[in-house]
Each structure stands twice: as structure tokens, then as C-alpha cells.
Amino acid sequence: MIKHKLKDITNFLSGAIILSLVLIFSYFSFFKIDLTEDDRFTLNDSTIELISNLDDVVEFKIYLDSEHLPANLTRVKTSIIETIEEFSDLSDGDIEYEFIDVYKDIEDPKAREKELLRLQKKGLQLKIIAVPNLNGQVERIYIPLGAIAFHNGRSITVPFTRQKKGNNPTSYEKEIEELEFEITNGIRKLRQDTMKNVAFLQGHGELGRYDVEDFSKALYEYYQTGPAYLTDKEGNSKINALDGVDLLVIAKPMNKFTQKEQFILDQFIMKGGKVLWMLEGARGAELDSMQTQGLLFPYPLETGLDAMLFKYGVRVDKNIVEDLQCSKIPIQTTANGEGRGFKLYKWIYNPVLTSNNKHLITKNLNPIKLEFASSLDSVPVKGVSHLTLLETSGNNKYKKLPSRITFNETANREIKPHTFTAGKRPIAMLLKGNFNSYFKNRIAPSFANHPSISFKTKSEFTNMIVISDGDICKNWFSSKNEIIPLGTDQFTKVHYDNKKFLVNCANFLLDDEELIEVRSKKIKMRLLDPKLVKGEKSFMQLLNVGLPIALILLFSFAFIFFRKMRFSK
Fold this sequence. Notes:
With 569 residues, the protein is an alpha+beta fold. Helix 8 packs across helix 14 (498-509). It is globular and about 110 Å long. It starts with a helix and ends with a helix.
């Protein structure tokens, strides 16, 4: 008897010691194992490095909190808690946070309304939720969808969700996917003393301010943005016109550059300046013009940049890509006297590109849509490497310029798939290395050696990206004159990843790869197959309800049977 009691005491003490050790270990150490295929619970290495090197406290006041949160926002809140807690643990307490319920913390209605207005002006989107009150009436409350971060006397808005509409199961997939990026980006902005300068070149028929407004706004989250001119109001070229510019965006120039302007661009590159080129191979290829006239006569575009780019290692071909992998446009199918009947047809001049390239810029991108794009050719240049970022599908061909384009090519089904055999060709290309000046041995020594010029014949190591379509960055406007987000097809409303691709290009050229790494993280939503659910609903219900009951009964009968067998002897 005593022996059994000692054994029980020993077992109890052993269990207590093991449990205590587990609790002590879990208190002083943190670890987790991420078994998901997409590493959804694992922070990016660049994120870990950033938060591990914090030198002072970053405080987050998170306003996405209420007892009335709908299910989809509750899911977002849960993800925020998990993410911010991990951030706090890895920062050794340098990241602090609190959740604020505006309605619970501020009882006075007028003060609450004032606070909500302040948060809205700070950039937090307000979500309207209908809540029944004690009187049986429906009351509207406003939930701020984000946080305010503070660091060393500075503050910044962190939008945890940008969702505007949609109530399906995947409505907030994007927001959960980008939580890590939004928090990391907020911390990065707070710690950043100076911002790099991105300039959009003007003066040569480039896309205007409103044409690139959505792209410009996306860049404004990270950089200073504005226009740049190579000449003054009197038309005189300014040698120092691009001083202070870190990245020059050249979006669809249609007029010719003078030799002086070419020289300014050339020397900007020689001094290590980065350029994002978005160039057209054709003039007169505009869908707006075609919808009014019914046909187009595109011809080669001459901007004076071709020889420069050839020297750097790339050539924009004088053609227009025709690709069977394309978007759709509405084409009138009835005669004018019979009303206005339209039907969507595949438009081979609007190629839709996907990238199998695992480069940081194109990683995890959705398809990208172009309009009247041309192909690119790489030119071998010593010291310069080429990497194709985007390319046509294998089912394509090219229309040489000058040429003729009509709606009948699509509407009358004149497309012959067996003729689309040109093979894949580059559309966007990254060039890296030490570029030779286009003006080497082309200018007088007296000019080249002038102290105010500081002429350089070879560049520092630098990068440039060339895209053979200027409309890739162009946003459209709705009938209410509202901006249609960049990448959204104005006819089909399908969203393409044009903006994300271009922002990735800018981040890469400006050596902000960590932003791309975090932004490129994707979470796969594994939803139930609606067809399978509908067809197998009864079976699945029976399985989920009946199987546990059957297993309980089976184990019960087995227990009774073995008990009888044991005690019947």
C-alpha cells in the first residue's frame, strides 16, 4: 500500500516538475513552427531586420476595435493582433500598441463625432455598420479602419484595410495579405529622415499629371513626386535640370528630344541616375481615336531617343504586338439604324502578360495589361546585363509599321490562330551595369572639359528599366470624372497588376527591395468549392453529424464488451 502511494507521489512530482519546466521555458522563449504552404505566419527577413534594429519605441493606436465588428473585420482584427504581437516580441518591447474603441472610450456624441472626423482627415477610412439599439431602431456607427503610429514626436497613418465594397468571403483577403507590409511601411516612414525624389518628365508630349495620377499617388506613399523639365520657360536647356532627382520617369513621350536635352538625360544616367522608360514604338495607335474613326494608320514614332537607348543596350522595335492572350473591348454589332448593340471581343492589340520570372519585381504578380505595345530587342553591350521582366505569350505576331488597323480584324473573326507563331518577345527589360555615354567622342573637348559640365564618358553602376508601352501607367476616368484605379480595365472592370508592377520597378531602382519583398507576400485562400458543396451537401452533413456519433457508439460497445470479457472470468 505504502509502495503504491510512494509511486503515485513520485509520478505526481515528476509531472509537476515537467509542467513547471515547460511553463518556464515558454515564458522566457518564443518560437513557432509555420506549417502552411505559403508561409502566412512567417515574417519576411527584411521585416525582422527592421524591427530588430529599432532604437526607440514605436507606438500604434489601433482603431479597428468594436464589439459590433462584422465577421470579416473580426478576422482582420485577429490577424492584426497576431501580427502586431509578433512584431512586439521581436522588437524586445520597442513596438507598443493599444486598441481603441471610439464609441466605448468617448461617451459624448459631439466629442466622438469630432474624433471620427479627425481620424478621417488623417487618412483613415470609416466603415459604416448598422447596429440595432435598445429601442429596436437601427443605429449607424463608424469604425476607423486603421491605426496611427508614433515615433520621436512624429506620427503617420497606417491603413490596415483599404476595402471599400464587397461582402464575399474574400473581401478582406488582400488586407490580411498586406498587414505585414502596412505595419513595416509605417515604421519605415517614421524612421526615414529624408525622402528620395521621383520626377515625371514633361515637355515632350508625355502623359500629363492627371493621366498618371494614380501611379503618382502610389509612389507618393514612399517618395517625393513632381514634374521635371529639361528646359526653362524660354525654351533654354538647363544642364542642372535633373539635379536632386533620384528616379526619372519618362512616360510616353510623343515629341522629339533636342540634342541638348538628350545630353542632359545622358549625363543624368552617367552620374548614377535611375530611369524608368515607358516608350511607344508607334504614333497614331490610340483606341479613343479608333472608336470615333473605325480604323487607325499607326506609323513609326521618332523621339530622338532610339540611338541613345541602342548605345545603352536596348531597342524599341517599330511594330505593334498582336497577341492571342489579350483583353476584350466592346465593338458595335448592329447597324446604326438598328440601335446600338455592342459585344465584347478579344482585342489582340491589348496583350495581357504574365511572368514566370522569379525576379523580385515580378514575383507573385497577377497579369498585366498593355495597349498597342511594341517588342524590345536587347543589344549586346560590354558591362551591361539584360533581364526580361515581361514578355509576350507564345501565341503572338507583329504588325510592322506603317500599317492599318480596323475593328473588323476582331469583329469579323479574321483572327487565324495558326498564324500567331512569332514566339515570346520581351516587353519590359531591366538593364544593369556601367553604361557608355551616347556623347562619347561626339562633342568638342572644349565643351566636355568645361568645369560647369563635368562630362562623364562612363556611368557609375546603375540600373534602368525599359517598357515598350507608354499606356501601362495611364489611368482612366469614369463618366463622373472619377479616377479608375490604374490597372482596372475600363470595359470589363477586370483588375490587372499594372500599378503593383510599376511601383515594384520604382522600389527596385531606388534600392528599396525590402518593400517589394514584403509587398509580394501572398496568402492563398482555400475556399470550399461551391459546386462540390451544393452537390455533396447532404452527404457532408451526414458525415459530420453521423460519423462522430457512430465512433462514440463503437467505442462504447467496445468498452462494454472488453469490460464484460475481463470481469466474467
